[in-house]
Amino acid sequence: MDGICYHPIGVIRSPYTQPKGMPIQSAAARGVTGRIELDSAYADGLHDIAGFSHLWLIYHLHCMTPGPLTVTPFLDDRPHGIFATRSPRRPNAIGLSAVRLLAVDGSILHIEEVDVLDGTPLLDIKPYVPEFDHRVVERIGWFASNIGRLTDTRSDDRFRALPPDAPA
To answer: What residue ranges define each of the domains in the chain, with the CATH number in brackets?
Structure first.
């Protein structure tokens, strides 16, 4: 298969300049505000976006390099397969967050519930629609015994892996 190439459509701004201390999921980032600085070439794509309270952000985990296929995640002390976790060190450095849209100011989106590093390249925005996105589930695997720790758990440096040319 040939390589796949994506180009950022903007950048996500947040109060987090390093992974340590960040919320590990947007659901644990209540009150944390930030913004999306969309490249002006994509501004027309924001037409009608103000009608949504929440958005999906798809972004490039720019400070990550692929890691092992078995990791010990933040909410557990046992190793799990990478695809059974939300670890940021994935075979493809793609992140996904559901955020609250507060306001639209030209090509700037003011958002809340931000759980990403400042300067993260944004790949796409999609509206969150509960009828499309919410599912009642029967099981959540190993998370079931640890989910109560979500709001108090913060990121540490265990998954930090900078590419050789990235600033520390």
So the answer is: 10-152 (2.40.30.70)
